[in-house]
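Protein: 14555_t:CDS:1
Species: Funneliformis caledonium
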Amino acid sequence: MSIFDLGTDDQIKEFMQGEGKNIRKPYVELSRRIPNFSSIQLCNRWNYKLNPRRT
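Structure follows.
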């Protein structure tokens, strides 16, 4: 069972594929927008589950 829901996954994808590309610390900014998760949790979710380049 994942602590991330589909809405959160969609937010992460939109941010990382859009404005997150141009930010120096995108996971810190994203954790401010989604305060339920730490920047490390968001980084791991993106790198190991959601990143389209990895799959």
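Remarks: The radius of gyration is 10 Å.
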